[in-house]
Amino acid sequence: MSAAHPVILVVNAGSSSVKVSVYTVPEAAHDNADINPVLSAHGQIEGIGVAPRLRASMADGHVVADESFPVSQVADHDAAFRLVRLVLSVGLRDNPPVAIGHRVVHGGSDFAQAVRIDDDVIARLEALIPLAPLHQPHNLTAIRAVRKAAPDMLQVACFDTAFHAGHDMLAQLMALPYAYYERGIRRYGFHGLSYEYIARRLSQVAPDLAEGRVIVAHLGNGASLCAMRNGRSVDSTMGLTALDGLPMGTRCGSIDPGAVLWLAQQGMTADAIQSMLYGESGLKGLSGVSSDMRVLLASEAPRARLAVDFYAYRAAQEIGKLAVTLGGLDALIFTAGIGANSPPVRSRICAHLETLFGISLDAAANEENGQRISSNASRVPVLVLPTDEEGIVALSTARMMKACGKG
Ligand code: AMP
Which residue numbers mark the site Transition state stabilizer (predicted)? Predict the structure, then answer.
């Protein structure tokens, strides 16, 4: 790690994990050149409150920590964040970070781009907790922990909603009484940091496709689709919250709102319904086996098979819907844990798309997770591009750092 270059941290606090990445920010070649932060180390704690495990490594793969902890030592996100920082700070002693960028899931209608964090921003992000109960509280825990330990540290919030901020009114509306739209009850879309990265990456690897009508399938633990025209988001399958759209690991995706009403009328509290829709549904709920796609693919259980079939069916259906928004389809991109690594899931989704879109896969390229997995005969090219949400947060944070004259 070069001591001369400013260092920034990127924090990604999830429901049961805290990930911290260390980037150095080299001088831009000239005033108008874009900044290109370089990953130098990464640390994370998974299994917070259940079976905490810390791992940290340098960008070259050298492991600097791999240790399990008793729950009592890493009971919450605050403790996890302090521990990861402590481990990473060993390498940062001579060159402490000048800025910290946070992945924040919900920016609501207030934030259409990354923002410098102050008390007012924190208050506005707190107000959005009910719209992202699984993620927003943990994002805020990390922000508050830094503010307490280093009040002058430049902190930047980078939003999963921001990439979708330019959506047309038709893509934002839900057919509730209009007053609710004005109160912010509208479709926002999420996974925007991932989609922003993919838009940049696609313009590098296939600039001709990047200018066209593209659907990106971010299929991880959370899952959504984004319709892009010329690298800009025009619609997404996720809406007001990260529950909407595709079925996910433990989240239900789109369901009839009447089902929620029915649950409430049966006497379930709002909290119990929330726990079920976010934590007990999706692949886990349908299969009764696991939320992990690898486990389901290896399972003989009939409902594991049913869950995967439903997942592929729904993903294909929603691709059709977004193709209507785009008025056609020039490329389909798969990304995130399942999208970038699971040939059988991609092939099951694409099998549904053969008749309507003339999509066919090259079986060998798909099996190898190659970059272009469609066959030569396919009417629509299909690509696999691994995502890098932290890289986008690093970039926005480095730009803010320069704008603020730090580093
Ligand atoms: P993410 O949230 O992007 O980390 O993705 C997590 C999901 O990716 C989990 O459901 C994993 O089972 C899934 N996943 C990761 N690697 C593979 C793989 N090789 N095959 C199938 N699913 C995978």
Answer: 191, 251
Question: Ligand 1 pocket test: which of 219, 341, 347, 349 has the largest number of ligand atoms within 8 Å of its C-beta?
Answer: 341
Residue 61 labelled as part of a binding site? no
How many other CB atoms are there within 10 angstroms of residue 117's CB atom? 24
Residue 7 CA to ligand 1 center (angstroms) comes to 30
361 and 250 within one domain = yes
| CATH number of the domain that residue 97 is part of | 3.30.420.40
Q: Which domain holds residue 151?
A: 7-166
Dihedral class, residue 2 (left if φ above 0, else alpha if ψ from -120 to 50, else beta) = beta
Q: Within this chain, do residues 162 and 266 fall inside the same structural domain, yes or no?
A: no
The total number of residues shown for the chain amounts to 407
Instruction: Say what the pLDDT of residue 123 is.
Output: 96
For residues 229 and 259, the answer to whether their CB atoms sit within 8 Å is: no
pLDDT digits (tens, 9 = 90+) for 160-210: 999 999 999 999 999 999 999 999 999 999 999 999 999 999 999 999 999
Q: Is the pTM of this model over 0.85?
A: yes
Is 402 part of any known ligand binding site?
Answer: no
Number of domains in the chain: 2
**85-143 per-position pLDDT tens digit:** 777 776 666 788 999 999 999 999 899 999 999 999 999 999 999 989 888 999 999 99
